[in-house]
Amino acid sequence: MITLTPHDQALLDGRHGSAAALAMRILVRCASVMGARQLVDIESAHIDGCLYHGQTSLDFVERLVAGGGKVVVPTTLNVGSVDLIHPELFRGEATLRRDAERLMQAHLELGCESTFTCAPYQLKHRPRLGQQIAWAESNAIVFANSVLGARTNRYGDFIDLCAALTGRAPYCGLHLPENRLGQCLFQVADFPADPDGRDIWYAALGLWVGRHAGTLIPVIEGLPADTREDELKALGAAAASSGAIALFHAVGLTPEAPTLRAAFGDAPPRQTLNVSAADLRAMRDSLNQARPGDTLAAVSVGTPHFSLEECGRLESLLARQPAPLAVDFYVNTSRYILWELESSGLAARLRQAGVEFVTDTCTYLTPIMRNTRGVVMTNSGKWAHYAPANIGVQVAYGSLRDCVLSARLGKVIFDGQ
Questions:
Q1: Is the pTM here over 0.85, yes or no?
Q2: Cβ neighbour number for residue 43 with a 10 Å cutoff
């Protein structure tokens, strides 16, 4: 039995409009299924449902719009199916474009922010340690929980928007502090230290952890002390893609794991697994469908969306060998990051070097790339995991340095060789 506040009941009774009443009915039913005894106030939401998957998603949001629905907390939007900033990039059917654009617009009519990014944590305002939120999109969830220490469950389409319209979420799971302690220890040995080539290994580790953690919360010990936020982003995104990871702890790096003992709350791990360099190589090989020297069709990076720092690293790598790129080189990023790049002049320099920016969506989700016949290279574990089934490409899986070197030559290069 769920205990409702007077405000919850007022929402349920329709005193705040039909859209809010529908959202609360769905929320209460979901809370019951999840075993929650009450709801909790949230301070922000991130919505995954603006990516068009068919008429049902549009019908649901249109009903909320027609019922006068408005979000009551700051609410960001995940990627859609169309790049509204660069509409000329879209290569799909006209009906898909029309419905996808309408779905994105309908979310704006509900009061959501026009962010259209899978990396809302890169925006100016992002969740604080201990803050209760209701976020969807797998990489955003795991980043918010793990790297920021905010508290959210894995919310999916529709329930995320219901939370945004009511400002409430089921108080269970990772919203509760006692459910956030580590359960399984991953001890990493001999993690690669080369700063130019190690990004691929964070993603490979994430994929390995995701496949082996099951339903347990992983604690990772042995990562370099100078691990960057973007590297933790890559790790979490890959872990959420290959498994059901919504929270991981990295000892000495993430806020709820200053020590191994703190990560587990003084309890022993239920399971301990050792991760070797050979394990990481095997994981990388499992997603790699290319061999050195294979002809390259394109490069796509920025899944999750590239940050300012990653764009700076890309410029540095491009500057080392200032030769023309032989293939298309796509950088998926957010409007916010692109605006920052435009202001600093970095966007112009990267375009001059041959980079093409994609905003509001991602190349593994929607028809954008001009050439997908052959091998497409990426440094993203998430892109490598999903792209073959989504858009029918063969994947070359290498570091950002490998992506740049390969794009220069028009053929696959691994490990800078």
A1: yes
A2: 14
